[in-house]
Design brief:
The chain is mainly beta. It has a single domain, classed as F-spondin domain (Immunoglobulin-like, Sandwich), CATH 2.60.40.2130. 8% of the residues lie in helices and 33% in strands. Strands 6, 7, 9, 10, 11 and 14 form a six-stranded antiparallel sheet that branches. Strands 2, 4, 5 and 8 form a four-stranded antiparallel sheet that branches. Strands 1-3 form a two-stranded antiparallel ribbon. The longest helix is centred in the middle third of the chain and has 9 residues, at 82-90. The N and C termini lie far apart (53 Å). The structure holds calcium ion (2 copies). Residues 149-150, 181, 183, 185, 187 line the site of one calcium ion.
Length: 199
């Protein structure tokens, strides 16, 4: 068996992801490819011009999915469901993880947590998880922008394609990240107001 390794690095303003993979290329059938997804918080003190939490942007633990078709976690411009509301407002992923497990076209799903209080991913911290995927599969995830009322990071729209044709992608996919407003709570500026998670 030949063993290949890729590395996808997702570097964002506040978050980044790396994906690496190995592939069994001895058969003609579509071969499963293992990706390693790494999310790193690249915020630092003063990233936000506020005193709360020294202006850092903690990321919450979150949920991820590998799937075919449309984004199984949320629809841009649509109503956030109860699970996405919990991620966006509280960084609580379990409801979404449970929902994803019931969707047939979702082949892999789960959660990731940081090592800080409540599972947060603090500046310079990173989390990794592995998924198995086949050509045609996409990846989506969601993590709360903690100094907000209901904002979260996820890939744009229907997520990222994990393959370019039959070739696994690798490297930095931060440019595919977007910061979304779940629309479930009124906003105050990041790091301000009485209703944000750190308050
Ligand atoms: Ca909002
Ligand atoms: Ca709410």
């Amino acid at each position: 068996m030949r063993h290949m390794v890729w590395s996808i690095l997702v570097v964002g303003i506040f978050g980044f992801i790396a994906v690496g993979c190995s592939e069994d290329s001895t058969t003609q059938d579509p071969t499963p490819t293992e990706f390693t997804v790494t999310i790193t918080n690249v915020s630092q003190k003063g990233t936000l011009d506020v005193t709360r939490a020294d202006g850092i942007v903690p990321l919450s633990g979150g949920a991820y999915a590998v799937y075919t078709g449309n984004n199984p976690m949320f629809t841009v411009g649509g109503m956030a469901d109860a699970g996405m509301e919990l991620i966006a407002e509280d960084g609580a992923a379990q409801t979404t993880v449970d929902n994803l497990a019931t969707i047939e076209r979702v082949s892999e799903s789960g959660s990731f947590v940081g090592e800080a209080n409540g599972g947060a991913i603090l500046p310079s911290a990173m989390v990794s998880f592995k998924v198995i995927a086949f050509p045609g599969d996409r990846l989506q995830f969601a993590t709360m922008f903690v100094q907000s009322n209901d904002w979260f990071y996820a890939f744009e729209g229907n997520g990222i394609d994990l393959f370019n044709g039959d070739t696994p992608i690798s490297g930095d996919v931060t440019s595919s990240l977007r910061l979304y407003d779940a629309g479930t709570e009124e906003d105050t500026a990041p790091g301000t107001g009485p209703d944000q998670k750190p308050a």
